[in-house]
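Worked Example 4.2. Consider the chain below.
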Amino acid sequence: MVKGANVGLAALSEDVGSVMVSLGWSSATGEGDADVSVLLLDGAGKVRSDVDFCFYNNPVAGNGSVQLLGKTPTADGSEDRISFDLDAVPEEIDKVVVAASRYGGSRFGELDDLRLTLADSAGDGLVRFAVEEADEVSAVIFGELYRRSGQWKFRAVGQGYASGLAGLATDYGVDIDDDAAEEDAREQGEQEQEPERDQGQGYAEEAPLPEPAGQPTAPARVPAQATGARADDASAAPAQDGPAAAPKPARRPRTAKKKVTLPRTARMSLADNESWRSARLFPVSALKSDRERETRATSVVLSVMAQVPEFGRRLTAGFGAPAGRMETFTEVTLPHGESPRRPDGVVRVERAGKLWTALVETKTNGNALKPDQVQAYMDIAARRGYEAVITLSNDVALDGSPLVDVRIDGRRKHKVALWHLSWAEVVHQAQMLIRHEGVGNAAHAWLLQELLHYLQHENSGCHGFQNMGAAWVPVRRGIDDETLCQGDARALEVIENWERLVRQVCLRLGGELGQKVLPVQRARRGSDPGVRRAELADHLCEQGRLNAEIRIEGTPGVLAITADLRTGKLRTSIEVPSAEPGYPLSRVKRLIRRLAEAPADLHIETLVDGPGAGPRGTLERLRPEPADIVPKDGAQITGFRLSLFKGMGSGRGSAETGFIRSVDEAVDRFHAQVVAQVEAPAPRRSRSEEPTG
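Applying the procedure from the previous section yields the following structure tokens:
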């Protein structure tokens, strides 16, 4: 589409009751990012209240009809996805605006290939719109969905705001409240003085105060942090009260309940000794066979999805499911020729009298999905008018490399979407909700905690990707004795499994930190993922190394991982820019002070402007002699590269001596002991300071 064009969604597809909008961009360094937001507008073109402003701290709006799903890796970077259940958008909403904003003085001109794509509930792409001429703006409206004659249409907008999201949001009735952070801190202090409730598991705040009868609805008041505005951002202008404004109350009433999260540290146990085991809602001790593990895991996950709305919606919104009442079923028998089939589960969502149905096929303990089973469920779903088939296993799906190849009968009018979930993704979503984002009440948080304990138990079989494949040992031997040739299919298999492992590392680390952690793929946008992986496989044959980069929100650079199969060493590193003023020696000393708790074997290399490498040394040697890494030729210091080395596991699995375990341990150690100490002094945002509504 071109800027200003519009199109009716019903003319593009019959499956537009739920649609997926993705916003994407790229940057030369792989570090450029932006925040996505959605505004739901009434007939007057304004938000009704702050619940109609959907952003990072309010990811669900419109009674669940709009949900921010976060970033997902793609073949050439990542995309932010937004799920829209158009049939469930409140009748008072006439228009939905989709925007993105940058923070900290950054502009969209620093990013490349700004684009919006829209897909129907079956995942088929319907619309693509490239945004141009956004060089000097820090916020952009990509597009809008609006109603006309009872039908939904899409308009390509591409409008930029030099004043940032603060200016954009103000135009639509959002009142930016700059002093909200200070007020939230004061409220936090008041709450700490109150008696502990719910045994330390958090509690829901009081219900919102009603608007005075006969008075117009007040504009939404959202803290400046919600719009990406910072104290040093000129766009973060204070909100102005009207001439007849009433005195500001000591505590601003909230329009949303505080979400419940569970504490990281457990309370002191009442058990007599460590041999006592806590009673669990989902026991794992009786599991003896793969079939029992599959049956139990399916029932556990589906039951929690139905009981915890935030969790169920989080897992199904990306598959085109509407926001509605969810019921889940296991071991359902469905006719299929002479031999009925029994999918592991069924998910059914009802909204306004319409049903959305997905069949679920589950595998645990590293067992592979069977193509004939999945094909049968696709055929059954097509005949019965179901919308999707969801596969759930330890494996991680890759773009352009499907886990299961199925036939799609083009003669069928009804389309069935095939989606995949990894157990690692399920664990990630549970962690994000109970540790960082919160759920509606303490009982739901406890249910998620029990689910998480079950999935992470060694006997559950739900441990995510845990096997580098049959090609791992032959490839390592071929590299060691220099007999592995370019074009060998086994090298390509190792590259694909390495990419799966890196994506799982991102999911695990992101769930623990509560931050966006994504793989960085420095590839030309639009390139074929199969071609890219083939090139990496040839590089592996030639160099004997596996390379990856991951970007962690709030850190000054990307975390690089290198597995050298020739030397058996794992290297984790990060490049820290040095933009502080001062003499070179002073900058080096500041860095070493920040690394006071880092391991003595940390390698530090000075990065200099121009050709050639700078001096390097270990932290143990540099602590008493920091001048040793100051360039002797007067070269300008541009930054420092920090690296840790670790022995690489040889086995293909996740056992104590396995390669997967060694990668996990190397990343965890490097992040905890190095990255966490050199994070930018003024991080992008603090989770404890985020607004709650």
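The chain is about 25% helix and 25% strand. The radius of gyration is 26 Å. Compare this with Example 4.1 before moving on.
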